[in-house]
Amino acid sequence: MVYLSISRKVKYYTKQILFASMILLNRGKNDSEKGQLTMKNKLKSCAILATLGAITIHLINKTLIEMATKDSLLNSSEGNYYDWRFGKIYYRKQGNGKPLLLLHDLDAESSGVEWKKVAAILAEKHTVYTVDLLGCGRSEKPNITYTNFLYVQMLTDFIKHIIGEKADVVATGESAAIAVMACGNDENVIGKICMVNPLSLTELAKCPNKRTKTLKFLIEIPIIGTLLYNIIHSREAIDEKFVDKYLYDEDTIDYQMTKIYHESAHNENAHSKYLFASIKGGYTKTNIYHCIRKATNSICIISGQYDENSIEIAKQYQKHVPAIECMCIKDTRHLPQIEQPEGFAEQLDILFSAE
Protein backbone atom coordinates (compact mmCIF):
# COMPACT_ATOMS: atom_id res chain seq x y z
CA MET A 1 0.00 0.00 0.00
CA VAL A 2 2.87 2.36 0.85
CA TYR A 3 4.54 1.65 -2.50
CA LEU A 4 1.27 2.35 -4.30
CA SER A 5 0.67 5.66 -2.50
CA ILE A 6 4.23 6.79 -3.23
CA SER A 7 3.95 5.76 -6.89
CA ARG A 8 0.64 7.59 -7.27
CA LYS A 9 2.17 10.70 -5.74
CA VAL A 10 5.05 10.68 -8.23
CA LYS A 11 2.72 9.98 -11.15
CA TYR A 12 0.51 12.88 -10.11
CA TYR A 13 3.37 15.40 -9.90
CA THR A 14 4.96 14.07 -13.08
CA LYS A 15 1.66 14.47 -14.98
CA GLN A 16 1.26 18.03 -13.69
CA ILE A 17 4.79 18.92 -14.77
CA LEU A 18 4.39 17.29 -18.17
CA PHE A 19 1.07 19.11 -18.64
CA ALA A 20 2.73 22.45 -17.83
CA SER A 21 5.59 21.59 -20.21
CA MET A 22 3.15 20.84 -23.03
CA ILE A 23 1.42 24.20 -22.50
CA LEU A 24 4.78 25.97 -22.72
CA LEU A 25 5.74 24.07 -25.86
CA ASN A 26 2.40 24.73 -27.55
CA ARG A 27 2.58 28.40 -26.63
CA GLY A 28 6.12 28.54 -28.04
CA LYS A 29 4.93 26.86 -31.22
CA ASN A 30 2.05 29.32 -31.63
CA ASP A 31 4.34 32.29 -31.00
CA SER A 32 6.80 30.90 -33.53
CA GLU A 33 4.08 30.59 -36.11
CA LYS A 34 3.20 34.22 -35.53
CA GLY A 35 6.84 35.20 -35.77
CA GLN A 36 6.72 36.55 -32.24
CA LEU A 37 9.17 34.17 -30.45
CA THR A 38 12.13 36.31 -29.49
CA MET A 39 15.45 35.05 -28.14
CA LYS A 40 14.39 36.24 -24.69
CA ASN A 41 11.22 34.14 -24.85
CA LYS A 42 13.18 31.10 -26.04
CA LEU A 43 15.60 31.36 -23.12
CA LYS A 44 12.71 31.85 -20.71
CA SER A 45 10.94 28.74 -22.01
CA CYS A 46 14.14 26.68 -21.82
CA ALA A 47 14.75 27.83 -18.25
CA ILE A 48 11.21 26.91 -17.22
CA LEU A 49 11.47 23.49 -18.88
CA ALA A 50 14.85 22.86 -17.22
CA THR A 51 13.39 23.80 -13.83
CA LEU A 52 10.40 21.51 -14.35
CA GLY A 53 12.74 18.70 -15.39
CA ALA A 54 14.87 19.20 -12.27
CA ILE A 55 11.75 19.17 -10.07
CA THR A 56 10.61 15.91 -11.71
CA ILE A 57 13.97 14.22 -11.13
CA HIS A 58 14.06 15.51 -7.54
CA LEU A 59 10.62 13.97 -6.91
CA ILE A 60 11.77 10.68 -8.42
CA ASN A 61 14.88 10.68 -6.20
CA LYS A 62 12.80 11.49 -3.14
CA THR A 63 10.41 8.66 -3.93
CA LEU A 64 13.16 6.11 -4.51
CA ILE A 65 14.82 7.02 -1.20
CA GLU A 66 11.48 6.89 0.63
CA MET A 67 10.72 3.47 -0.82
CA ALA A 68 14.16 2.12 0.14
CA THR A 69 14.06 3.32 3.74
CA LYS A 70 10.37 2.99 4.66
CA ASP A 71 10.82 -0.26 6.63
CA SER A 72 13.65 1.06 8.87
CA LEU A 73 15.40 -2.32 8.89
CA LEU A 74 18.77 -0.92 9.98
CA ASN A 75 18.30 -1.20 13.72
CA SER A 76 20.68 1.01 15.70
CA SER A 77 19.24 0.29 19.16
CA GLU A 78 21.56 -2.69 19.73
CA GLY A 79 24.72 -0.61 19.37
CA ASN A 80 26.37 2.68 20.26
CA TYR A 81 27.99 5.63 18.52
CA TYR A 82 31.60 6.76 18.65
CA ASP A 83 31.68 10.54 18.27
CA TRP A 84 34.61 10.77 15.86
CA ARG A 85 35.88 14.10 14.54
CA PHE A 86 34.59 13.52 10.98
CA GLY A 87 31.25 12.03 11.98
CA LYS A 88 29.52 9.61 14.34
CA ILE A 89 30.52 5.95 13.88
CA TYR A 90 28.01 3.23 14.70
CA TYR A 91 29.38 0.09 16.36
CA ARG A 92 28.16 -2.93 18.27
CA LYS A 93 29.99 -4.84 21.00
CA GLN A 94 29.19 -8.41 22.05
CA GLY A 95 30.84 -11.35 23.80
CA ASN A 96 33.87 -11.63 26.09
CA GLY A 97 37.50 -12.44 25.46
CA LYS A 98 40.33 -11.11 23.32
CA PRO A 99 39.09 -8.14 21.25
CA LEU A 100 38.24 -8.82 17.62
CA LEU A 101 37.23 -6.03 15.22
CA LEU A 102 35.21 -6.88 12.10
CA LEU A 103 35.33 -4.49 9.11
CA HIS A 104 32.76 -4.84 6.33
CA ASP A 105 33.65 -4.36 2.67
CA LEU A 106 34.05 -0.78 1.50
CA ASP A 107 30.87 -0.38 -0.57
CA ALA A 108 28.11 2.21 -0.41
CA GLU A 109 25.50 -0.46 0.39
CA SER A 110 27.60 -2.37 2.95
CA SER A 111 27.41 -2.19 6.75
CA GLY A 112 28.17 -4.21 9.86
CA VAL A 113 25.14 -6.36 8.96
CA GLU A 114 27.62 -8.25 6.75
CA TRP A 115 28.95 -9.84 9.97
CA LYS A 116 25.61 -10.47 11.67
CA LYS A 117 25.60 -14.25 11.22
CA VAL A 118 29.22 -14.93 12.17
CA ALA A 119 29.60 -12.31 14.94
CA ALA A 120 27.36 -14.28 17.33
CA ILE A 121 29.53 -17.38 16.83
CA LEU A 122 32.80 -15.47 17.29
CA ALA A 123 31.41 -13.77 20.42
CA GLU A 124 31.61 -17.12 22.23
CA LYS A 125 35.40 -16.71 22.45
CA HIS A 126 36.02 -13.01 21.73
CA THR A 127 34.83 -9.53 22.53
CA VAL A 128 33.55 -8.78 19.05
CA TYR A 129 33.25 -5.24 17.69
CA THR A 130 31.43 -4.60 14.40
CA VAL A 131 31.44 -1.10 12.94
CA ASP A 132 29.71 0.73 10.13
CA LEU A 133 32.51 2.61 8.38
CA LEU A 134 32.09 6.35 7.88
CA GLY A 135 29.76 6.89 4.90
CA CYS A 136 28.09 3.49 5.37
CA GLY A 137 25.08 2.00 7.13
CA ARG A 138 24.11 3.75 10.37
CA SER A 139 27.23 5.91 10.58
CA GLU A 140 27.23 9.52 9.43
CA LYS A 141 27.73 10.20 5.72
CA PRO A 142 29.44 13.59 5.30
CA ASN A 143 29.98 15.20 1.92
CA ILE A 144 33.76 14.72 1.78
CA THR A 145 36.31 12.89 -0.33
CA TYR A 146 36.83 9.49 1.29
CA THR A 147 40.39 8.14 1.23
CA ASN A 148 42.24 5.14 2.58
CA PHE A 149 44.09 7.37 5.04
CA LEU A 150 40.80 8.77 6.36
CA TYR A 151 39.73 5.23 7.26
CA VAL A 152 43.19 4.46 8.69
CA GLN A 153 42.70 7.40 11.06
CA MET A 154 39.18 6.22 11.90
CA LEU A 155 40.33 2.66 12.61
CA THR A 156 43.29 3.78 14.72
CA ASP A 157 41.19 6.20 16.79
CA PHE A 158 38.40 3.65 17.25
CA ILE A 159 40.78 1.01 18.62
CA LYS A 160 42.50 3.50 20.93
CA HIS A 161 39.38 5.22 22.25
CA ILE A 162 36.72 2.50 22.21
CA ILE A 163 38.48 -0.87 22.40
CA GLY A 164 41.35 0.48 24.48
CA GLU A 165 43.85 -2.26 23.63
CA LYS A 166 45.44 -4.05 20.70
CA ALA A 167 42.82 -5.88 18.63
CA ASP A 168 42.85 -8.53 15.95
CA VAL A 169 41.11 -7.40 12.76
CA VAL A 170 39.11 -9.25 10.11
CA ALA A 171 38.37 -7.16 7.02
CA THR A 172 36.58 -7.85 3.74
CA GLY A 173 37.56 -6.68 0.25
CA GLU A 174 38.98 -3.17 -0.01
CA SER A 175 38.73 -2.69 3.77
CA ALA A 176 41.62 -5.16 4.18
CA ALA A 177 43.96 -2.45 2.84
CA ILE A 178 42.77 -0.13 5.63
CA ALA A 179 43.87 -2.64 8.29
CA VAL A 180 47.26 -3.17 6.63
CA MET A 181 47.93 0.57 6.34
CA ALA A 182 46.82 1.09 9.95
CA CYS A 183 49.58 -1.32 11.02
CA GLY A 184 52.11 0.78 9.12
CA ASN A 185 50.72 3.93 10.71
CA ASP A 186 50.79 2.62 14.30
CA GLU A 187 52.13 -0.83 15.17
CA ASN A 188 50.52 -0.74 18.62
CA VAL A 189 46.85 -0.90 17.58
CA ILE A 190 46.45 -4.14 15.61
CA GLY A 191 47.55 -7.67 16.38
CA LYS A 192 46.65 -10.29 13.78
CA ILE A 193 44.98 -9.49 10.47
CA CYS A 194 42.68 -11.70 8.42
CA MET A 195 41.86 -10.43 4.93
CA VAL A 196 38.71 -11.84 3.31
CA ASN A 197 38.89 -11.78 -0.49
CA PRO A 198 41.10 -8.66 -0.60
CA LEU A 199 41.66 -6.60 -3.73
CA SER A 200 44.79 -7.42 -5.69
CA LEU A 201 47.97 -5.43 -5.02
CA THR A 202 47.80 -4.26 -8.65
CA GLU A 203 44.24 -2.94 -8.27
CA LEU A 204 45.05 -1.18 -5.01
CA ALA A 205 48.03 0.59 -6.60
CA LYS A 206 45.85 2.39 -9.18
CA CYS A 207 45.66 6.18 -8.80
CA PRO A 208 42.83 8.57 -9.71
CA ASN A 209 43.01 9.70 -13.34
CA LYS A 210 41.13 12.17 -15.50
CA ARG A 211 38.36 9.69 -16.32
CA THR A 212 37.76 8.58 -12.70
CA LYS A 213 37.87 12.18 -11.45
CA THR A 214 35.20 13.11 -14.00
CA LEU A 215 33.08 10.17 -12.87
CA LYS A 216 33.39 11.30 -9.25
CA PHE A 217 32.30 14.80 -10.25
CA LEU A 218 29.24 13.49 -12.12
CA ILE A 219 28.06 11.32 -9.22
CA GLU A 220 28.40 14.22 -6.78
CA ILE A 221 26.25 16.56 -8.89
CA PRO A 222 22.96 17.29 -7.07
CA ILE A 223 19.77 15.76 -8.51
CA ILE A 224 21.31 14.20 -11.67
CA GLY A 225 24.14 12.53 -9.77
CA THR A 226 21.71 11.34 -7.12
CA LEU A 227 19.45 9.83 -9.79
CA LEU A 228 22.43 8.00 -11.30
CA TYR A 229 23.37 6.71 -7.84
CA ASN A 230 19.79 5.59 -7.12
CA ILE A 231 19.61 3.67 -10.40
CA ILE A 232 22.93 1.90 -9.77
CA HIS A 233 21.80 1.01 -6.23
CA SER A 234 18.25 -0.03 -7.02
CA ARG A 235 16.77 -3.07 -5.26
CA GLU A 236 17.06 -5.07 -8.47
CA ALA A 237 20.74 -4.13 -8.89
CA ILE A 238 21.58 -5.15 -5.32
CA ASP A 239 19.70 -8.46 -5.66
CA GLU A 240 21.69 -9.08 -8.83
CA LYS A 241 24.93 -8.26 -7.00
CA PHE A 242 24.15 -10.92 -4.39
CA VAL A 243 23.55 -13.46 -7.15
CA ASP A 244 26.52 -12.56 -9.36
CA LYS A 245 29.18 -11.41 -6.88
CA TYR A 246 28.47 -11.89 -3.20
CA LEU A 247 27.13 -15.45 -2.88
CA TYR A 248 27.77 -18.67 -4.78
CA ASP A 249 24.57 -20.58 -3.94
CA GLU A 250 21.51 -18.57 -4.93
CA ASP A 251 19.38 -20.66 -2.55
CA THR A 252 21.29 -19.23 0.43
CA ILE A 253 20.34 -15.63 -0.39
CA ASP A 254 18.33 -14.01 2.39
CA TYR A 255 16.25 -11.38 0.60
CA GLN A 256 15.57 -9.67 3.91
CA MET A 257 19.31 -8.97 4.00
CA THR A 258 19.28 -7.60 0.45
CA LYS A 259 16.54 -5.22 1.60
CA ILE A 260 18.82 -4.08 4.42
CA TYR A 261 21.66 -3.51 1.93
CA HIS A 262 19.24 -1.52 -0.23
CA GLU A 263 18.18 0.58 2.76
CA SER A 264 21.79 1.10 3.82
CA ALA A 265 22.60 2.57 0.41
CA HIS A 266 19.75 5.10 0.67
CA ASN A 267 19.36 6.18 4.29
CA GLU A 268 20.39 9.74 5.23
CA ASN A 269 19.04 10.91 1.85
CA ALA A 270 21.37 8.59 -0.08
CA HIS A 271 24.46 10.46 1.14
CA SER A 272 26.45 7.25 0.69
CA LYS A 273 26.75 8.55 -2.87
CA TYR A 274 29.73 10.63 -1.71
CA LEU A 275 31.56 7.48 -0.63
CA PHE A 276 30.49 5.79 -3.87
CA ALA A 277 31.87 8.76 -5.84
CA SER A 278 35.20 8.51 -4.01
CA ILE A 279 35.38 4.75 -4.66
CA LYS A 280 34.66 5.21 -8.37
CA GLY A 281 37.11 8.11 -8.44
CA GLY A 282 39.84 5.81 -7.15
CA TYR A 283 40.46 7.86 -4.00
CA THR A 284 39.94 4.97 -1.54
CA LYS A 285 42.73 2.87 -3.02
CA THR A 286 46.37 3.03 -1.99
CA ASN A 287 49.54 1.09 -2.71
CA ILE A 288 50.07 -1.25 0.27
CA TYR A 289 52.99 -3.20 -1.23
CA HIS A 290 55.77 -1.73 0.91
CA CYS A 291 53.61 -1.61 4.03
CA ILE A 292 52.59 -5.27 3.87
CA ARG A 293 56.18 -6.36 3.22
CA LYS A 294 57.40 -4.51 6.31
CA ALA A 295 54.52 -5.57 8.56
CA THR A 296 55.49 -7.76 11.51
CA ASN A 297 51.87 -8.75 12.18
CA SER A 298 50.58 -12.26 11.57
CA ILE A 299 48.53 -12.00 8.35
CA CYS A 300 46.23 -14.55 6.78
CA ILE A 301 43.83 -14.60 3.84
CA ILE A 302 40.48 -16.37 3.55
CA SER A 303 39.26 -16.78 -0.02
CA GLY A 304 35.88 -17.77 -1.37
CA GLN A 305 36.37 -20.64 -3.82
CA TYR A 306 34.32 -18.99 -6.57
CA ASP A 307 35.12 -15.33 -5.90
CA GLU A 308 36.62 -13.90 -9.09
CA ASN A 309 40.43 -14.34 -9.12
CA SER A 310 40.48 -14.74 -5.31
CA ILE A 311 42.83 -17.74 -5.34
CA GLU A 312 45.26 -16.01 -7.72
CA ILE A 313 45.14 -12.83 -5.62
CA ALA A 314 45.95 -14.81 -2.45
CA LYS A 315 48.92 -16.35 -4.24
CA GLN A 316 50.05 -12.87 -5.32
CA TYR A 317 50.14 -11.73 -1.70
CA GLN A 318 51.90 -14.94 -0.65
CA LYS A 319 54.51 -14.45 -3.38
CA HIS A 320 55.53 -11.10 -1.90
CA VAL A 321 55.08 -12.16 1.73
CA PRO A 322 55.64 -15.93 2.04
CA ALA A 323 54.63 -15.89 5.73
CA ILE A 324 51.01 -15.12 4.82
CA GLU A 325 48.79 -18.13 5.43
CA CYS A 326 45.95 -18.76 2.98
CA MET A 327 42.75 -20.75 3.29
CA CYS A 328 39.85 -21.29 0.91
CA ILE A 329 36.23 -21.92 1.87
CA LYS A 330 34.53 -24.16 -0.68
CA ASP A 331 31.27 -23.30 -2.41
CA THR A 332 31.40 -19.62 -1.46
CA ARG A 333 32.04 -16.39 -3.30
CA HIS A 334 32.84 -12.88 -2.03
CA LEU A 335 31.10 -13.06 1.38
CA PRO A 336 31.79 -16.51 2.88
CA GLN A 337 30.93 -15.12 6.34
CA ILE A 338 27.31 -14.79 5.15
CA GLU A 339 27.16 -17.97 3.09
CA GLN A 340 28.89 -20.33 5.54
CA PRO A 341 29.17 -18.58 8.92
CA GLU A 342 30.01 -21.74 10.91
CA GLY A 343 32.73 -22.81 8.46
CA PHE A 344 34.10 -19.26 8.34
CA ALA A 345 34.27 -19.01 12.15
CA GLU A 346 36.01 -22.40 12.30
CA GLN A 347 38.67 -21.36 9.77
CA LEU A 348 39.19 -18.06 11.56
CA ASP A 349 39.63 -19.86 14.88
CA ILE A 350 42.31 -22.08 13.32
CA LEU A 351 44.16 -19.13 11.79
CA PHE A 352 44.03 -16.91 14.86
CA SER A 353 44.90 -19.68 17.35
CA ALA A 354 48.03 -20.61 15.40
CA GLU A 355 51.19 -18.91 16.69
Automatic annotation (TrEMBL):
Key words, A-Z: Hydrolase
Highest taxon of the lineage: Bacteria
MF terms (GO), sorted A to Z: hydrolase activity
Domain AB hydrolase-1 residues, every copy: 101-346
PANTHER family: ALPHA/BETA-HYDROLASES SUPERFAMILY PROTEIN, ALPHA_BETA-HYDROLASES SUPERFAMILY PROTEIN
Protein name, entry field: Alpha/beta fold hydrolase
Source organism (scientific name): Coprococcus comes
